[in-house]
Amino acid sequence: MTDKKVKVLVVDDERSLLEMLEIVLSSHGFDVFTTQDASDALRILDAENPNVIVEDIRMPGMDGLQLLRQIKDKRPLLPVIIITAYYTDQNTVEAMRLGAFDYIKKPFDIDLLRTTIERAIRHSELLSRREEQPFDTPQLVGVSPHMQDILRLVRRVAATDSTVLIVGESGTGKELIARRIHLDSPRFNQPFISLNCAAFPETLLESELFGYKKGAFTGAFADKKGLFEVADQGSLFLDEISEIPLTTQAKLLRSIEEREFIPLGDTAAKRVNVRIIAATNKNLEDEVKAGRFRKDLFYRLNVIPIEVQPLRQRRDDIPALVGHFMQKYNARFNKSVEKIEESALKRLIAYPWYGNVRELENVIQRAMTFCDGNILKNENIILQPSIQKEQFEIPESFNLEAHQEEIECGYIKEALRRAKGNLQEASALLGIPLRSLRYKINKYRIEYK
User: Fold this and answer.
1) CA angle 377, 99, 87 (to 5 degrees)
2) How would you classify the pairing of strands 270-271 and 260-261?
3) What is the residue range of 222's domain?
């Protein structure tokens, strides 16, 4: 963050909220401008040149989405944070497609808004400093409580120099989180080096990590720097850390503890100042028990653990991600797809996403490729059958009817929650007749409001 005061423009038709935000944000050092009128917000935008805008969606006259569209026409890289009590999946998609930086539901925690503003400013500074397209700078997208917790944790962790272990299924965005930690840290202008530990056999992995001297082995015709040395003063991201062989784990542990390493074929140690961020899609405690991972290395890495939920456990993030990817591929493919059909969005929300965010991005990219108009249609969305072996394992004392009842209850409760108790909407989400939904609610004695 620069020493110059950050200007924040807050646009909301609720006067009491504006007064509260002006007092609180000013106390945190921001230069705050407020208005209840979207047209007046455009005047302030031109006159005061704010660094970030916080705006509501529902306002009289010009609404928040129309305002967002005009702001982006004038200042494409200006971060805009949406705050609203009227959350809908389509509004989320539209806001993110138009380029909103984040989307926060009311009522919100003021610390969440403050940290989101700080993230937005850092993101904007990175874009202007690196002079690149917005999507080359990692942006964590998510409105679910889980993702908001991760964003807060990333901000706090980044300010320290502690080792971080990120755990989550493939495709959940572990490297994106690692990059965000690096860019929010004091090391942001130093190297961020990424290594997939599963991509190298043992002998090659050691030479990649620690380098080698000329003549260390057949074919070593010149000295080669290892990634520890290349990442000096920066961050080294070790993905799939569980795949490192035990012998290499011992050398890695020493390098992390002593902050030094010995290149292959050398006798002198080299000192480095590197922050280690590791990631895995396995339970390392189970790997330790099985004898495949060193206990001392696990404790050394697990200083600050970050567990990333699979996308199917945070479905509230799907509309925001869809809008984000629509914006990304509109820019990349020079298209102007403006919205997604409701039925298509419902399919995306209901899909299990065993490939997580990576799979969702691939689906949206493919859909955008074959979309001929300005609406992403159901027919453009191609979802592959997603079957996991674990689904068909039969535990002891298994009862198929009870399991089926549990699954049905779960989907019905989730549909009722999303539809805010509206049976017609809930039956549409589930793709079953209203009469069938009523029957199942009575059968399973499901309470709803």
Assistant:
1) 70
2) antiparallel
3) 151-307
